Amino acid sequence: MTRRKLLSGICALVLVSGVFAVPVPKIMPSMEISVSAAETLTYEDFEYEISGENVVITKYTGTDTAVVIPEKIDDIPVTRIGAACFMYNSALYSVELPDTITSIGGQAFRDCKKLAKINLPEGLEAIENWAFGGCSSLDEIKIPSTVTVIGDTAFYGCPIKEIELPEQLIVINYNTFANCTKLKSVVIPKNVKKIGEGAFQNCTALTSVTLPDGLESLDSGFDGCTALTAVHVLDSVT
Question: What's the pTM value of the predicted model, to 2 decimals?
Answer without folding.
Answer: 0.85
